[in-house]
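Can you give me the bound-state structure? Components:
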Amino acid sequence: MLEYLHYLQRAIGLALMLRPEVAEAVERYPESGRVVLGIVFLAGASMLLGQSVVLIVNRVRPLRFLLSVAVNGLLFIVSGAVWAVALWLAGRWLFAIEPSLGLTLRLVGLSFAPQVFGFLILVPYAGPFIQRVLYTWSLLIAVGAVQFSFKVGFFAGFVCVVLGWLLLWLLTISVGRPIMALHDRLVRRILGTPLDASIQDIVAALAKGERR
Amino acid sequence: MIATLLTGLIVLTLLCALLAPLESLGWWAGWYGYTPDLALDLAQATAADSAAAHHTPAQHYLVFLSGIGAISGAALPPDEIRFLDALEPRLQQSALVRDVFPYSVTNNGLNGQRAFARFWRWIEYMRLKNPEGLLAGLICLRNMFQVAVSADSRYGPVFNLGVAREIAAGLRRRGYLVGSNTPVTLLGWSGGGQIALGAATYLSGILTAPLRVISIGGVMASDPGLPRVIHFDHFYGTRDYVEKVGPVVFPGRWPLAQASYWNQARIAGRLTVSAYGPFTHIGAGCYFDFDQALPDGTPYGERTIEVIVEVLTREGLLHAATPRFQEETGYGYP
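Here's the bound-state model for the whole set.
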């Protein structure tokens, strides 16, 4: 367990620094997939913590709150895999090289490393800026992953990421609709509340004297 | 050694930042065994005030919201106490509310009923022994993040609503009748400036009375509370480098952001910014310093009182000084 945590911490550190050794290690050792899974799970849990204001405002009970943090980690693994498949498909279409899907999955999983610090989004006032920094950082690592997988330059890697994102978006608004509906139902079930009110709505209604 | 110290400092700052919103969010979520319901509280307050309407309330209320150095509503830094003691007699028929702790949604001072109260009491004790010590900076750090909470669009609504309720409670303690339309002015110093604007968003709805805000060296964002106030006056000293942080870190105050609350209020003439002397933010030469004087002999603290009284007189909340008043008191302003 301790050894796993050590690898996890080291992989996060190297990925954050955009170091090529981490991509080489991921390519060489297929068992690195477990470490990458850990990164994506932690990123999911941490991002939910960082964005948990909406849960607290909607008065989600503490146990449900903790459960939703864990479930979000698992859901992040699923959405990360879909994102990697989209990149893999876009890359195959754009470039001559055809890397294995497994390698692309592991490399793209590394791009979630900055989001392990998603809890920092809680920082007052600077939080939304930190969120943008983390997303940009993730994007840069994803471009690096595409560069390494398909042996292309930065610009080609960037184009592939944009194309992958477009593909994902198209999937979400077409065949992905029932899946998204299922995802939303699952989240609502866990939280026990529809999360349909923003903080501004609730407080404004209270301040006007409307009972909720 | 230096690297360890720096790391420790960064971790401490991050911890303070991450914990900062918890008090207000927990209050909102009912973690402390009470779930706020403004509609109910307001109905009770209005009913109680109607029953007590035979009292003669003041004609205007001035609420002081202290700087980030405050530890509770009752334990203000000594220079603020001295300043308020000098200001109060000059307010004629106005009442001064000075016991609101603006860095807590429940008006609970750092030394009150809370988890780390012992720690804060110790810091307060150390500050009394050495007011310029580093430990006192912890109070400022803690309260500075509450200012950030107030300015944050995610946490601000909850925090500002809580503080607005506490201001309303402070006003009622001084005899204010909710629904009486008696004008109220919030006087925010340093971080209190942001909190005054933030609370104004909801206070205007609670009191349904004319509301104004005066900031002395305030560090404020372009807050949604601005459209809720009749006028906002911001005064600062030319040697105050803390105040200068506001126009830089809050994009809504940049001249480019013409549609922001700040710039819209400025364009509409409801926001006035004035440099009124060579004051610093804290320490010797600050806004509340009665030991240093301007070239005409007016002590710094006295000049700050003058500008506040000038604003209240301009707004018709105080009477202009009569020659007899000047002769009897020696003050140029009432």
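A couple of observations. Chain B is about 45% helix and 10% strand. Residues 2-19 of chain B form the longest helix (18 residues).
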